[in-house]
Design goal:
heterodimer, A: mainly alpha, 2 domains, two-stranded antiparallel ribbon, about 50% helix, B: Rossmann fold, 23 helices, flat, binds guanosine-5'-triphosphate, binds magnesium ion
């Protein structure tokens, strides 16, 4: 028993879930859910569909180069069971997971670094433009919104009166 | 080799009438048929000569074929030659073939004569008469061969049914008096399925069967029974046996029936043996006593038995006993006979000059002795023990009785029986695992953890790799890789962020309030002419409405006015700072209207104000009514749609749809 990866979105396919398509050249495609299967049937390229892992990897949104990623590999050479090895492996898996999570958070932080200035500017603009909005009580906003919208001419009138 | 003596391939010999018909129609088909008296005489002669020559060729071919296909008695194996002599009479056979080739020559000479005559034919009529005469004479010659042809056809049919005996292979030849059980023996050993009946001369011809012994293919020949009388008196059936005995270099199994159940006395059978003994010369011979279920050699009275034994001893013949009923001794008979034959053949090969050639090539290599140490084969004690145990019985030391030896090891079968037998017991395959430590065998091996396959991480040197990773981790920490060096926000920035959040929330609130409004017809709601996206409209409208609403309440919010201006004029701060923007609102409005009108092509060229525009709209609507009804895209749309869409007018209508199929 093993967890397979969805061909389309690269999520886990648990035993008994999803579906498997075997093409007539005997290549196997597994899908985690009908959504992925449907997208596959539409001949979509998972690298171009934004919600897939493949997209995130190619678009540089996920960490792809790291030594923690070298540990998980599909191995085709079977290794005889060894209790000690199994124990070390389980421990190692936990530790690798930890380290990987930390590195991923750093990766995300670096990816978002240039956003801070932008965010500041946006905040400033919003505050500058709509200062008064912050002070108006919520009920009044709701009430005002129930008035019909104004036309261009009416708006001009409003401006002139103001 | 055996296929060499396969006479099944001879083609059917047509009767004389058929042969004629075949050839005449062939002439008709394959030679020109149109000739006129007016043609040049050379052409006419040519035409008829061709017919005659063609007829000759056809006859030649057919007759040659017949004579060529039948085996020549001088060329085939003497056994077959003799057998054919016995069955079809050598003279008759040769005569028939001779006649056929004679007929061929006659036809040749007829054709030769008549072509010569046609050369001198002076008219079409004469040439034609000569051709008719030639074909007529040929036909007569063939008709005279009627008997030969029918005889040859019969021979062909019989030949095709002859067993394909290979005279040179390993052969066991079964012979003896009729009714002694020869065919029964044959059926025991092979799948020949020879007829077995309780009367004499059941078998009337030779039969072949095949069997395997010592990984070799053996041929068994069942012969018809032979009676004891001089050769001249023998009939065709017996003669076949004699032929086989005379010519095949085989192992002879002479069957006798001591019980005399076959209807012939022992004396008669022994006499026969003596009579045909010359035929066994140089062949391994076994005297097979059959039907020992009735009477054995040991049951015979002493004088007869001694006589037989003396005879056997004199001729060096082996004795074997068997019964086809009880199967006793059948295999033993086969084995003795086959072994004798193998020995005889090997002996003969050794005596032939060819063996020397082979012997010259043979060399048996012997390893040279390294030292004087004796190295006998070593059989472990346990293996010997097991061998001994395999011999079921052993003498009990206490009682002195023979008892089955207890099995030295428990088998899987025993384990199964112990644990509830088949269907209950489950073989634990884990017991057979080959692991470094036997304690691990029954471990439950985890497969998945934290959404990962553990197998993907199993790696004999994972410990080293993990250590390397930890080292790297330490290095990275030391290098400050994990440090968060995003600059901290100043209190002012924090303040802005908090306010921005509040504004965003309010905006969201406004949006939610708006979208929860009951939708009104679009025209009523907006009252706008320029189709700007609704999203923008809403954003622009939100605050002015708010301002009006608040102003109506008598609240004084100077920021609102500024805000509105900023919305409509592109930034209130710009307006405040840049004097160019500090225009009177009415002026600004005028500019804006002009700008807007230039951009909106629907309003272009119309007088300011609503009246003319409304009129224009009305008229446009009216002119578009027709095309709209016809679902046209506009004036320029002249497309003619399919008038009878196939999918709406084809296919059967069952219950249900007539308009959609
Ligand atoms: N009691 C007994 N009868 C046998 C045995 N073998 C053959 N018979 C019987 O003997 C009779 C003749 O057997 P066949 O095998 O036809 O004898 P055959 O020698 O082939 O006879 P022909 O073909 O006429 O020469 C049959 O009724 C068999 O049932 C035997 O071992 N014991
Ligand atoms: Mg018989």
């Amino acid at each position: 028993m093993r967890l397979e990866k969805c061909f389309f979105c690269s999520s886990n396919v648990y035993p008994g879930h999803g579906m498997m398509f075997v093409r007539n050249d005997s290549k196997i495609f597994r899908f985690c859910r009908s959504k992925c299967h449907r997208n596959f049937k539409l001949k979509r390229n998972p690298r171009k569909v934004r919600w897939t892992k493949a997209f995130r990897r190619t678009a540089g949104k996920d960490m792809t180069i790291d030594s923690t990623l070298e540990f998980e590999k599909r191995r085709n050479i079977p290794v005889r069971y060894d209790r000690d090895l199994m124990a070390t492996t389980l421990k190692a898996m936990k530790r690798i997971k930890e380290i990987k999570a930390r590195r991923e958070s750093v990766f995300y932080r670096q990816r978002m670094a240039h956003k801070h200035a932008q965010e500041k500017a946006e905040n400033q603009k919003l505050v500058d433009d709509m200062v008064d909005l912050a002070d108006i009580p919520a009920e009044e906003i709701q009430q005002a919104m129930r008035l019909p919208e104004v036309s261009g001419g009416q708006r001009q009138n409003a401006m002139e009166t103001a | 080799m055996s296929s060499y003596y396969n006479f099944k391939k001879i083609q059917v010999i047509p009767g004389s009438e058929d042969l004629l018909n075949i050839i005449l129609s062939k002439i008709q088909r394959k030679t020109p048929t149109v000739i006129h008296p007016g043609y040049k005489i050379s052409r006419i002669r040519e035409f008829y000569m061709r017919k005659i020559k063609f007829a000759q060729d056809c006859f030649d071919e057919k007759l040659d074929h017949i004579t060529g296909e039948f085996p020549k008695l001088d060329e085939i194996h003497p056994f077959y030659a003799d057998l054919m002599n016995v069955l079809y009479d050598r003279d008759h056979y040769k005569l028939a073939l001779g006649q056929i080739s004679k007929a061929k020559h006659l036809i040749d000479s007829v054709a030769k004569d008549y072509t010569r005559l046609v050369k001198f034919g002076d008219s079409l009529y004469r040439c034609k008469q000569l051709k008719v005469a030639a074909l007529g004479r040929m036909a007569t010659i063939i008709k005279r061969q009627k008997d030969s042809l029918t005889y040859l056809e019969q021979v062909r049919q019989h030949l095709a049914r002859l067993p394909s005996i290979d005279p040179n292979t390993r052969t066991l030849l079964v012979c003896g008096y009729p009714n002694v059980g020869k065919s029964s023996f044959m059926n025991k050993l092979t799948r020949a399925d020879v007829d077995v009946q309780p009367y004499a001369f059941t078998t009337k011809s030779l039969f072949v069967g095949h069997m395997d012994y010592k990984y070799l293919r053996w041929q068994l020949i069942d012969t018809p029974g032979i009676l004891d009388h001089p050769l001249e008196d023998r009939n065709t059936i017996e003669m076949q046996s004699v032929t086989a005995l005379a010519h095949l270099r085989a192992c002879v199994l002479f069957f006798i029936d001591l019980s005399e159940e076959c209807g012939f006395s022992i004396d008669a059978q022994l006499n026969l043996y003596n009579t045909i003994k010359p035929l066994f010369a140089g062949k391994p011979t076994v005297m097979v006593v059959n039907k020992i279920d009735k009477k054995r050699m040991e049951d015979l009275d002493a004088p007869t038995r001694e006589r037989i034994e003396a005879m056997l001893a004199r001729d060096g013949v082996t004795l074997a006993q068997q019964s086809c009923y009880t199967d006793e001794g059948v295999i033993a008979v086969r084995d003795t006979a086959c072994d004798l034959l193998i020995a005889a053949r090997a002996d003969m090969k050794l005596r032939s000059h060819r063996v020397q050639d082979v012997l010259n090539k043979l060399h048996v290599a012997q390893p040279q002795a390294r030292d004087d140490v004796a190295r006998p084969a070593f059989v472990p004690e346990a293996a010997l023990e097991r061998q001994r145990a395999a011999k079921e019985m052993v003498r009990d030391p206490d009682t002195g009785e023979l008892v089955p030896l207890k099995r030295s090891m428990t088998l899987a079968r025993d384990v199964e029986a112990e644990h509830g037998g088949a269907g209950v017991y489950n073989v634990n395959l884990k017991d057979r695992y080959l692991l470094a430590n036997d304690d691990w065998k029954q471990d439950i091996i985890p497969e998945l953890m934290d959404g990962k396959n553990i197998a993907d991480f199993i790696d004999p040197d994972i410990a080293e790799r993990l250590a390397a990773l930890e080292e790297e981790e330490e290095r990275l920490i030391a290098e400050g890789f994990y440090d968060d060096n995003t600059p901290d926000l100043t209190p002012a920035e924090l303040e802005t962020r908090a306010r921005a959040k509040i504004i965003r929330d309010k905006k969201a609130l406004a949006r939610a309030a708006h979208s929860s409004l009951a939708t009104m017809p679009r025209m009523e709601l907006h009252g706008r002419l320029d189709p700007r996206p609704e999203r923008i409209t809403r954003r622009l409208n939100t605050l002015p409405i708010l301002a009006r609403r608040l102003a109506a309440k008598g609240k004084d919010l100077p920021a609102t006015a500024q805000l509105m201006r900023s919305v409509s004029q592109g930034g209130w701060r710009a307006a405040a700072e840049d004097p160019a923007y500090a225009r009177k609102p009415s002026e600004v409005m005028k500019m804006r209207r002009l700008e807007g009108d230039q951009k909106n092509r629907q309003l272009m060229g119309l007088a300011p104000g609503k009246a003319q525009y409304n009129q224009a709209i009305k008229e446009v609507r009216f002119t578009q009514r027709g095309p709209n009804l016809m679902a046209k895209r506009g004036e320029s749309d002249r497309h003619i749609m399919t008038k009878m869409p196939k999918h709406l007018f084809s296919g059967k209508r069952t219950i249900g749809k007539t308009d959609r199929r």
